[in-house]
## 1
Amino acid sequence: MPEHIPVDEAVAIGIDFGTLSGRAVVVRVRDGEELGDAVHEYRHGVVDRSLPADGRLLPPDWALQVPQDWRDVLRKAVPAALAAAGVSADQVIALGTDFTACTVLPATAAGAPLCELPQYADRPHAYPKLWKHHAAQDQADRINALAEQRGEAWLARYGGRISSEWQYAKALQLLEEDPELYAAAERWIEAADWIVWELTGVESRNQCTAGYKGIHQPDLLPGSGYPGRDFLAALNPGFADFTEKIDFPLSPLGGKAGGLSPRAAAWTGLIEGIPVSVGNVDAHVTNAAARALEPGHLLAIMGTSTCHIMNSDRLADVPGMCGAVRDGVVPGLWGYEAGQSGVGDIFAWAVRTALPEGYAREAHERGIGAHELLTEKAQAQPVGAHGLIALDWHSGNRSTLVDHHLSGLIVGLTLDTSPEDVYRALLEATAFGTRVIVDAFERSGVPVTDFTVAGGLPKNAFLMQIYADVLRRPVNVIGSEQGGALGSAIHAAVAAGAYPDIHSASAAMGRIRRDVYLPDPERARDYDLLYAEYRELHDHFGRDRLAGGSNVMHRLRALRAQARTAQAADARTANARAANADPSTPATSATPATTDLPASRADLDGVPA
Ligand SMILES: Nc1ncnc2c1ncn2[C@@H]1O[C@H](COP(=O)(O)OP(=O)(O)O)[C@@H](O)[C@H]1O
Ligand SMILES: O=C(CO)[C@H](O)[C@H](O)COP(=O)(O)O
């Protein structure tokens, strides 16, 4: 830590790059006090309908982002946070970042995103693929099938299935749908590492994304630590050298990646050369902020999605986990990750699609949000009174089924069912989904001793009480509304040498409120009954396809892909006809992309209903 800054005045900045916005927080290094913050909403948000460059439609399940939106966070949110905190740039001892993951992009060896090269701006595959890009499920299925067939030891570290959200599935999709761009991509890099490259001018790779999203398991995979050339070639001969695009020395979490470059100093208003910590993931970095680093302390970071992150001194193969990675959260422990791809997203879907006009008016008149109104109405009823069970798979299932071709379900609808009934059933479904994950840990010999929540959803007290009742456990709450950014500031403080390690920095700067919600025995008993019903539906639609269950969700998705592909082809033909008839007619923005995906026949054929 620089000696010229009095210890009480030293601050670190943490920047949390989320799904829709980036948030910078100025944090006092001595005690973690948050002095000021600012948010910058991404101009393009999630690009999931049409490409910004030319308006071409994207196929279903795509989710892209625009790197300039991330740079704008540095340019706008950092100076605004400094101003809000009332501190000057020379008090800032270090900067740390965290990012959604696996959010990954093709880049040149100099770090230029391919989508920023004019010749590739109209190619969907040139853009960063956001974590919730779910269009590489076919590739993920093939990776899993091959790994299983070859008895690859690393597969069990990922719960027996890697997700279509991860680096390999997304890269294989790039190769197979746009081979020219794949060849042009000298780097396949997580946004978590790319932003650090932008900040420092130094290329680095962090151990967290490499392990969880990049299948880096050095004790199982000799050499680079990544799956070997023969495995990659068996997936697709053109994929044999994929490792060259990702293999780079890994840096430990809490380490210094480099000093702030002159260019980034000009963007942010900070002083050139201050330490920038190694990249990290929004979920994993939050454990430090919540003082949830000790073995068995599970942190659920609940927002658009939920990530469950827990350290353990034990290594076990937990079915359906996202990954177990040595040093993946803090050096010296095994870090486990599990998750639910849709949580807040599902509640948002309910508000978007099932809020009657009268409810919207009431919320408006009372000056409250739709979530608050639906929550208030939903909490008036006893457990089970809505007669519903929902499955929380609107965005697929990341753990424990690891299948993004699954979809949501609500059973028990009647003509009496109200919007708040549906909303409550969805809240409960996400709690049941978390219970499946906690049960999987415990059954595999990885005890869960503490359960803490962070993220944007703990503000919903009723939701938190449902979690306490369904899990039959006390729920602790992080003492910060910006856990990711606080966690990043904690890592920055370590990188600057203000603390010897992440544990001591977390103890001094992190915050937790213990036992905020306690389970109610009666409600917990009633929820056990609903959970049993949830498990039955879960296994029927998600697990037991080959043992009497139903594959209907896969078949519906395949039919949807076929229908949309046909619709896109019709639109192309109509557009071409119009252009031939009148050569001055411009191509409309409804002209579909060249990336229309073929429907997967495998999803339609040969699987019992
Ligand atoms: N009171 C509420 N109750 C339940 N869900 C909410 C409430 N307010 C917002 N949400 C949901 O929370 C999500 C945003 O969570 P947040 O943690 O702020 O964002 P992110 O995960 O992108 O960082 C949205 O999907 C929104 O639908
Ligand atoms: O999988 C992740 C981390 O491993 C994603 O970053 C996460 O699910 C997205 O986070 P959020 O819901 O907060 O936007």
Note: Residues 18-19, 100-101, 131, 281-283, 303-305, 307, 337, 339 surround ribulose-5-phosphate (ligand 2) (CB under 6 Å).
## 2
Amino acid sequence: MSQLDTLIEKMYSIDMMEKVNNRAYPLLQKRMQANPDDLDTLYLIAEQHRMQGRLDEAKNHYKKILELFPMHRHATITLNALCGRQSDQVQQPLPVPFILRKAVLPLELHSQFLEFTATHSHQFQSMKGGNFQLSLNKHPEVQQRFLNSIGLEYQHQIFKIVEQAAESLVGMSCDFREAPINYHFLNYPDQSGFGCHQDAKQGGVLNFTYCFYQEPKSFEGGELVLHDTFYSARDAYNDPKLGNNFTKVALPNNSLIVFPSSCYHQVRPIQSECTSFTQHRFSLVGVIKLKR
Ligand SMILES: O=C(O)CCC(=O)C(=O)O
Ligand SMILES: [Fe+2]
């Protein structure tokens, strides 16, 4: 099977998993009521919560597993990942460690992002996932305008978080003032998404996504899915391998997520009745190239 076939299969497997999970969930709940300490049931429920994006419930279930079975390796690794901590290498795909921060920018700065993208809407280009992109690296004049208007204050707020995250996510401390960063804005109309990919190929080590949109929210979907990734594949030059499971993360308005660039991820399709560019889901993605 070609790599493309594998990726396409992954996209469908999320839909499949959701259907199966929805059917299995009440049955698992019943089984747990009958036997609350059954490891297999607890583990399956924990994984379902993670894949459906109910991350607090997932964490509670992994914690319960660890209370009952303190040596449970996969529960330890997954709980670590959900708390933004990298684990030791093992020969199997691992849940991606990530850090999610909500309400990251002051409201005024958040509005400036909406304004900036609205005034540059004509420069966004249509991409194959149905989304629209504006690469700041390909448009140095836009990048300069961005830096002059909101970039510096934005970096001040965001870099603090990313710097703290770097150590636990990719095991390295970093100074972003030196590091090259590839930036692009994204806009997601109805039915658009972003197919499964990793960003390490272009030398990226750490990814961050600032997600923003206008309230009230006028779309559904658009969650970020972080696929369990085979650890050695996190080296950009190895042949990457995907695991069967994943973590679904709903990115709230004005939130920031940081994760290793080598991990496979995708953005789930958007459903929206609204055709206005300014009402869509937006993100600003930064791929940081750090020297290891
Ligand atoms: O929009 C997002 O949340 C992520 C997009 C992404 O993965 C990318 O641009 O590389
Ligand atoms: Fe990406």
Note: The chain has six helices and 14 strands.
